[in-house]
Amino acid sequence: MSRSMTPSSDDLEQLRQLEEKLWRAETRFDRNEMSRVLAPDFLEFGRSSRVYRRAEALSVEPQEIPAKLPLPNLEIRLIHPDVALITYESDVAYRSGRERARRSSLWTRTHSGWQIRFHQGTPIPDGEH
Fold it and tell me: Given this model, what pLDDT does residue 7 score?
């Protein structure tokens, strides 16, 4: 018997909240929270093209994250009953300028809850929508 590929409203809300926690300084820099959320094999291709593994992601220095929330154009798709693909745009207004990117995250459901396994950010050129 297969489970539905349509996310439940609970899964949608939980995944939205988890993704947004990555953009809130109080949760993004909470090492205990991030240790629970980042999968052991977590990998990120940052918008700068830098590669982050779990250890690097956990050791990022705390800083302000002036991101637009809720996340623009957020979509959540199940690609397997226990695997979700989240896509959205980030819009962050740093003092040095605005940074926009198209983002994707791959989350897997584990016995202890959803964990992020992969994330990628691709810069959106100035003037592009």
Answer: 84
Two structure tokens written together for 64: 């302000």
d(CA 123, CA 91): 10
Q: What is the band of 96 on the pLDDT scale with cuts at 50, 70, 90? A: confident
Decide: 106 and 116 in contact? Cβ < 8 Å.
yes
Percent of the chain with pLDDT over 90: 84
| Strand partners of residue 68 | none
Amino acid at 36: R
The answer to whether the pTM exceeds 0.70 is yes
Please report how many Cα atoms fall inside a 13 Å half-sphere around the Cα of residue 97, on the Cβ side: 4
Which CATH entry fits the domain spanning 9-123: 3.40.50.2000, 3.40.50.300, 3.10.450.50, 3.40.630.30? 3.10.450.50
